[in-house]
Amino acid sequence: MIPVQPDRFLADLHALRAIGASGVGKGVVRPAYSPDDIAARDWLAGRFAEAGLEVAWDPMGSVFGLAPGQSFLMGSHSDTQPEGGWLDGALGVIAALEIARAAREAGGPPLSCVSFQDEEGRFGVTTGSAAWAQALDRETAPTLVDRDGITLAEARAAMGDRLGDWLDPARFTGFMEMHIEQGPLLDQTGGKIGVVEAIVGIRDMVIRFEGQQNHAGTTPMHMRADAFQALSAFNQRINERFRNVVTPATVWTIGHVALHPNAHSVVPGKVAFSMQWRDGDADRLDRMEQIIRDTAAEIAAEKGMGLEFGSMLGVPPVAMDAGHRRALCAAAEAQVPGAWREMPSGALHDASNMARLMPASMLFVPSIGGISHDFAEDTDEADLVTGLKVMADAVARLTS
Ligand code: HGY
Ligand code: MN
Ligand code: MN
């Protein structure tokens, strides 16, 4: 058993929370490449060094704490959503730090940690780990643009000379990520640990309708090419058409809408909105994409509007490594007999990309009320410590 110290783990988790604390509950605002994101990464680099790990930065700004020679990698991300919680990502990074540190103090096994950059997708989805795994083209990554039109290359310049070279994935024997569930299942069923079977696939793109901007008082209704009305009709029609295709586990979201010029007395001429959909079945993702593209084209034709699809970002559904899952199930049964379950992940994680490079796995702890991507996100500290112990147990089984 790796002799982890729960108090030290919780103290570090709270210290990381203080960097970019939102002032609302335990909320944190640390978007990728923001000053607080970079400050958090510098703080982590210091902690990695104190633990005797070699600090390395990759070209995206992901920061590693490396054990010598071949090692087992653990981690997650320390960037947050624009209104983020204190645990989404941070939990997996600090658990990795504590387990690697405790293993080093005990004389082994060799364990390394990482905080990936831009998991929350200011520039895409799981951008940092996707570029390392080459699920995202490394030449394209710097050209990605955020919702304010800033390129990744411009934002990344704030990291200055920290940035280094890509690491060779062959130096790692596997990857494990602990995370909050971010959904209601464990909380509602009294489960303490979720062993992830597979991570759902996601597709995400921007859609633009362009009509005619005009005066909201003088333009007769039949003469309008109103971009908001197009979006509204599109939304209603895809909801109807998806009914024949989706399962109760399928989800889709229009989460960002930019209406132009966004004023009371102007018929809006343009709208750009995000369209994101997720499912565990790649064929279903394909069928949904066809519905989205066909429906948008139909609405544009009916309303006499221009239509443009942005580039598609996607991560396919990924199964977690069978050997890792066996180790996690055995560790969960040893630590919390009967109070764990195997389950899918509806959220996306860096482990999706790591599965392309090495055996990869994940475990979940409960989210109070199933809330995440919100300042109110929280988990009982006793449950965080249970997760730490189960992960340390599973890692010891895999590396002994
Ligand atoms: O959106 C996601 O699933 C992840 O939390 N970035
Ligand atoms: Mn996360
Ligand atoms: Mn997240």
> What percentage of residues falls in helices of 4 or more residues?
25-40%
Cofactors, ions and other ligands in the entry: (2S)-amino(hydroxy)ethanoic acid, manganese (II) ion
What is the string of SSEs from the N terminus onward?
Answer: HHEEEHEHHEHEEEHEEEEHEEEHEHEH
Tell me the total number of β-strands: 17
Structure notes:
Strand 3, helix 3 and strand 4 form a beta-alpha-beta unit. It contains eleven helices and 17 strands. The N and C termini lie close together (10 Å). The longest helix has 22 residues. Helix 1 runs antiparallel to helix 3 and helix 9 packs across helix 11. 47% of the residues are buried. By secondary structure, it is an alpha+beta fold. 34% of the residues lie in helices and 22% in strands. The model has no long low-confidence stretch (mean pLDDT 97). One manganese (II) ion binds next to loops.
